[in-house]
User: Fold this.
Amino acid sequence: MKLYNKLLLGAALFSVASCTEDFEEMNVSPNQPANATSAQLMATAQYNFADNIGDEWNNGRMGMYYAQYWSSTQYTDESRYQIREGVNQTMWNTFYADVLRELVAAQEIEMENQVTGYQNRIAIAEIMKVLTYHNLTDIYGGPIPYSESINDEIATPAYDSGEEVYMGLLSTLEEQIAILDPAQPGYLEGDLIYGGAGSVEKWRKFANSLRLRIALRMIDANPTAATEAIAKSLNPANGGLISSNAESALFRWIPGAPNNNPLAEAFKTRIDFSVSEPFVEYLQKYNDPRLAVYADPLQGTNNYVGEIYGLAPSDKRLSNGDPKVVSLPSNYLIGETAPTVILDYAEVEFMLAEIAARGIAGVTGTAQEHYLEGIEASFEAAGLSDAAYTAYVARVPYVAPNLETALDAIGSQKWIAMYGQGIQAWLERLRLDFEDPYTGEEIFVAPAAGSVDPAVALVPFRMSYPVTEAQLNEANYGAAVQAIGGTNSLAARQWWDVK
Assistant:
């Protein structure tokens, strides 16, 4: 086995039976450990994945801006779509050089040792790889190194098209769901998402739920393949779906650096983010009690004020993070132990609502029922009462005179429920392009001072490939750029975004 010099403190040498239990008590050097077990590599891969999609850079300055949950308090260029190439490179590298390689290494150890349950553990790692590639292909707009990636014999891997990646991911999920055997153990240590007793059943449910996400993302571009994948996930014989908040896929952080929530760590030294005006105003429009959970009121008051989205750096209206001027994110998202959500129950219910609204067979229950269950799951996760839920849904009934309005209702509520999941919420914003279902008004706004990127007016459709790809993998990079329109632009539409 190769040695890994990036195994992180508190993540590399976890020895856990359930999520992050006791890992704060570990005291092992993180610097080039002599050996790494499959459990340690799985823990590190999950840690690196959660940090990569949940930190202040990729989540805060990309996902949370592009989904318009947050605004910038002072350094506003990124909310106006000027990216930092170094940050972009780190995101790409973390997915490929850290997460995927750690998962491959864990699988190699399992295959070599073949301890009871090794097939389950290899399958769990493979499902984590699907999750990682899915994020990569959607963040970067389709073509990515996939079939030739993570191969030490191929220095310049080809880029597979977005649709080829999707079909590969769906095929892999089908294979791994069939392999998972609840009668055999999964990861008893090292699995910080579902580890311990019963983990194999939970991973089957997660894999089926992830398959739904992938299928719906491509439903308009390839309805036949999407419908087939949906039917497989809905088939109870395949293990079911995430069906409660207790089964949601979360990465749970613990108090104290370096293992607390990365957003919490960022807020300890500076306040770069506030809750955005579009988000606050939409929640206020329907008196949504989740606003008081997601955001803090202005200091000394019960009032909530969102920051204008995309101001110029010199604009005197910028709050500079002053809690007397603007509402800041609450501990619901930036608390030290606030989990990073990977895929939760509320999202599953909204996916089922959309499937039913589209008239796809196999769903038990109506679109309206799943729409309401999605809101209820969100309220439960936010710690709100049944009475609060009942009063709220009377103000936001399911409306479906046609599919477009139904998707507006489902999309707007899914967006609210996904608060904190910046990257996935941004991608769903692009796919569903929803408006207020009751007024037809736009929910999202263009940056107030205009976009820094002349090709992007309202929101980027993708992240550009890192500039090093043009240098280190020139021919394959060039082919990928041609496939998305000829320029490595944030304005190149996703292959599945055919509206």
